[in-house]
Amino acid sequence: MENNQYFLKRRNRLKQWLRIRLGALQLIHRTALNLLWLFVGLSTAIIIVLKNEFVEIANIPQLIEPIFNVALNVFVILLPIIMIFAVLEYIGELTARRDENTLMVAFSDKDLRNGCPILINQRKIKGTDVTVREFYSNIPYDVWIEKKEAIADAMNVHFVEEIQYGGKGNNNGKIIVIKTAKGRKPTGRGILYDEEL
Predict the structure, then answer these.
(1) Helix (H, G, I), strand (E, B), or coil: what is residue 182?
(2) DSSP classification of residue 31
(3) Among 73, 123, 133, 194, whose Cα sits 20 to 30 Å from the Cα of 21?
(4) Dihedral, CA atoms, 112, 140, 137, 115, nearest 10 degrees?
(5) What is the pTM of this model?
(6) Is 44 in a helix, a strand, or coil?
(7) Banded pLDDT at 1 (limits 50, 70, 90)
(8) Three-class SS state of 107
(9) Residue 182 bridge partners (DSSP)
């Protein structure tokens, strides 16, 4: 039981870090999302103005005024940093939610016993309809190959290339890369009628 708790905490920390990383990568791949930094900048400016007004309005005793000012300055510095990480994690969560949920449909409960694959990158290849998705996964590669059609059905895509490993040199067994395009391609049915009749 204690081992399970340790595994869950470790996985949640890893998932949170990968969400922040995914959010940062989405800002690179989808430049329109960078408008969110206006919100962070505006919020920071409002906090600074409110801090200055609060210091003027508050009747703080001379004895604790230096400590109060230091604490307030630390708060003003930390809040924008926390907001930046929160925005990145939120973008990552919104990006990953749909793909991860559809993968849960494609894999069995036995496959998912060590957790659902975590989306770590998603990008479109310019000039094509191809989307490249990278997942951090404890599911073995051969299970991904075995469930390839179920994954395609669940995501409503067709595979452009074979499922492969990711990472530097494409040799990281924990990272799975899939390249897909929208829509299912109908399977070939062969000859539907015989001309000899």
Answers:
(1) strand
(2) G
(3) 73
(4) 20
(5) 0.78
(6) helix
(7) low
(8) coil
(9) 157
| C-alpha 134, offset from chain centre | 10
Q: Is the pLDDT of residue 195 over 60?
A: no
The tally of CA atoms less than 13 A away on the side-chain side of residue 172 is 13
Which of these, 99, 108, 110, 113, lies nearest to 176 by C-alpha position? 99
160 is written with which tokens? 């452009």
Q: How far apart are CA 129 and CA 165, in angstroms?
A: 21
For residue 129, what are the CA distances in angstroms to 88, 124, 132, 148, 151?
Answer: 26, 7, 10, 19, 18
Gyration radius of the chain's alpha carbons: 24
With a cut of 90, say whether residue 67 has pLDDT above it: no
**Residue type for position 5:** Q
For residues 115 and 138, the answer to whether their CB atoms sit within 8 Å is: yes
Q: Count of CB atoms within 10 A of residue 176's CB? A: 22
